[in-house]
Amino acid sequence: MTDPAADAPARRSPLDSGYALAGGIAFSLAFCLLIWWTQQLWPAPPPYGVEIPGFWYEWQLEFPTVWSRATAWGGYLLHQLTLWWLIWKAQEERPAYTRGLHPINVAALGANAFFIALHLVQTRIWYDGLAQDVHEATSFASVAVMLVIILIMENQRRGLFFGKPLRFVTEAGQVARRYHGYYFAWAAIYTFWYHPMDATSGHLIGFFYMFLLLLQGSLFFTRTHVNRWWTLTLEMMVIVHAILVAIMNQHGFANFVAGLLGIFVITQVYGLPWSQRTRLAVSAAYVAGVIALYAAQGRLERAWTALSIPFWDYVAVFAFSAVIVAVARRLRGRAAPG
User: Fold this and answer.
1) Residue 221, phi then psi, degrees to nearest 5
2) HSE-CB of 103 using CA atoms within 13 angstroms
3) Theoretical Cys-Cys bridge with 159: which of 28, 163, 182, 303, CB 3.0 to 4.6 Å?
4) What is the pLDDT of residue 7?
5) Of 122-136, 145-159, 228-242, minimum mean pLDDT range
6) 3-state helix, strand, coil in the chain (%, to 5)
C-alpha cells in the first residue's frame, strides 16, 4: 500500500500522527502495567468454570451473573457501534491523507482509550468477558481472517508469492481496501472484549497487541496508518504473540515459528525496500533455521510441516478473494443501468 499524497509542513504539529503513534504505544505499555498492578490489589476469581474437551477458555466465571454478562456485552456493543460510526463518518467526509491528525482521529483515539479503561473496571468488578457465551475459536479466527485480508490488500504492492501479484487478488484487494476498516474494527474489538483483563503473561501480551490494533484503527486517513514499517510490525507481532503463547503452553512451538516466518519469507519481505540479494539471504537463513529447529527437537523428518500454516493461509487468500470478487461483480452488475 503506497503512501497517499500528504501535506508536509515545515514544523510538526503537536497533533502529528507520528506523535500519536508514539504516545499510543507508550499508553499501551503503561496500561498493561496497570492491568498487572490492579490485579495485585483485586485478585481475579479462583479457577474458573468446568473444563470442556477441545477448545476451552479457562478464564471465565464458574457461576456467571446477569451483571457479568450484561456489562461484558454492553461494553462490547457500545465500543463496536461507536467505532463503526466513526469509521462511517470518516468515509463520508473523505479527508485527505495527512501527517497530522483529523478531528475524527482524535475522537477515535479518545473513544478507544475510554473503552479500554471501561473494560478494566468491568473486569475488576464482574470479571467475565464474552468468552462466557461464545466459542474460543471465534476469537482466534477473527484475527486470523484479518491477517488474511491484509495479505489480499497488500498483494498489489508486494505480491503474494515472491513479489509476484495475482490479478484477481488485486481486484479483491481494491474492494477490501475500501471496506476493511469495518471488519478490522470488529475483529479487534470483539477479541478485546472476549477476554477479561487478567494479568497472566499471555493476556498481557495479547492485550498489548490488541491496543496496538485499536491504535492503528484510530489513525485512518493519516500517513502513519499506511506507513509500511508500522503496518508490517503489526503483521509480524502476531508471530511474536503466537510464539510466546506456544512456549508458555508448550504446544506447537516449531510449527508456529516456522509457519509464520514462512509467510514473511514468501510474501511480506517483498514489501520492504531490500535488495534481491538481501531477500535471498533471508530465505536461506530461514531454510537453515527451520532445519536446525526441527533437528534440535529430533523431528527433522517433520520439517515439511513448516509449510502447513502458509499453505492454509494462501488457500484462505484464494477463497476470500474469490468470494469478494464474485460479490463485488454481482453488486456492480445490479447497479449498472439497464
Assistant:
1) 60, 30
2) 2
3) 163
4) 44
5) 228-242
6) 75, 0, 25
Per-residue pLDDT reduced to its tens digit, 291-330: 888 888 777 887 788 888 889 999 999 999 999 988 888 8
Separation between Cα atoms, residue 153 and residue 183, nearest integer Å: 13
Q: CA 30 → CA 15, 37, 197, 208, 213, distances in Å? A: 21, 10, 14, 10, 16
- In sequence order, which residues have a C-beta less than 8 Å from that of residue 98 and are 6 or more positions away? 6, 7, 17, 221, 222, 223
Phi, psi of 164 (to 5 degrees): -100, 115
Phi-psi region of 161 (alpha: psi -120 to 50; beta: other; left: phi over 0): beta
Distance, in Å, from the CA atom of 336 to the CA atom of 338, rounded to the nearest integer, reads: 7
In angstroms, the first-to-last Cα distance of the chain is: 35
The cell for 140 is 482466534
What per-residue confidence (pLDDT) applies to 246?
A: 63
**Cβ neighbour number for residue 62 with a 10 Å cutoff:** 10
The letter for the amino acid at 4 is P
**For residues 314 and 11, what is the distance between their CA atoms, to the nearest angstrom?**
44
194 neighbors 237 (Cβ within 8 angstroms): no
Rounded Cα gap, residues 314 and 161, in angstroms: 10
Q: Quick check: 51 pLDDT over 80?
A: no
Measured N-to-C along each axis, helices 201-218 and 228-249 cross at an angle, to the nearest 10 degrees, of: 160
pLDDT score of 8: 41
- Residue 237, CB half-sphere, CA atoms under 13 Å: how many? 16
pLDDT digits (tens, 9 = 90+) for 193-219: 999 999 988 889 899 999 999 999 999
- pLDDT surpasses 70 at 46: no
For helices 253-266 and 276-296, give the axis angle rounded to 10 degrees.
170
Residue 96 is which amino acid? Answer: A
Please, which residues have CB within 8 angstroms of residue 189's CB and are 6 or more apart in sequence? 76, 79, 80, 83, 115, 214
Note the Cα 264 to chain centre separation in Å: 16
Rg of the chain in Å (alpha carbons):
21
